[in-house]
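Marked as duplicate of an earlier ticket. Keeping the data here for the record.
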Amino acid sequence: MNRFGYQIYKTCITEGLIRHGDKIIVSVSGGIDSMSLCCLLSEFREKIDLELHWVHFNHGLRSESENEALFIRDLSRKKGIPVSIIKTDRLSGQKDMQNKARQWRYENLNRIMIQQGFDKIALGHHLNDLTETQIWRMLRGGSLFSFNPIQMKGLPYIRPLIHTPKRDLEKYLNEINQDWCEDASNSGSDYTRNLIRNELMPILQACAGGKLEEKLLALDHDARLLKEFFQEQVPEEHYQCDSLQYSQILTYPPLFACELIHRYLIYHGQTEINRANVELIFKQIKSKRGNWSIDLKEGVQISGHHKLVTIGKKL
């Protein structure tokens, strides 16, 4: 294990991401991030007892997908790690394909974890993913809480590389002479996230004097502290419930009140939330009006009646 690998290993131990006897499902795309994660966790077995099982997803969207699956299968044999190859042909041409593909992957990762009797799922998100997501959420009108969008540890998920720049991962793979797969779709700017990655981030990096990741990582740290304070002050049952009480919401400062509403919407399955809607809901609550309603996505409606906020399908 080289110095870089040992630093990641120490982080994993210090942060409680791995421990002796862990059984870890590893999501493997074949790219720089997941390939680094696979190689690092494999090396960690020199120091700690880990059982690993790789899962590779073939979305059936690119001509290179079959070769990538063969590459992953061959590498799994060399390292003596079992692998599951999951394929679908149902994503092509679907609306909101990226989100549906992400949901499909997570569902299968959890299914395989349960079937195999494993206890953790390791994902290859790195610092560039974190900073791109921060910018994406900011552009969509996120709150201060949104600057901590990806957690290092939120069991069963662990992300050992979340504070590591992609350039360091590429250097690591080159040092250990490990090939990886390049996804040509990442070079285009057809999707908003790719546009942020390929065109906006280099401009911001230049404006920040080459220290963009460090500055955004500091915001991530502050937002994490804010989330922890929120969790100390606001019990889960105040938003993980069937209805919200006006009086309860109004006991909190506006920032926490809006976050409470936001988490209530997430608890009820509203993952694509418009900040303007949250603020409008809070405005209605502050006015202490009843008999109001706001339409959300996919036929969902949030309403205020008798000083209670409820959510349900639009009639």
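See parent ticket for discussion. The first strand starts at residue 22 and ends at 27.
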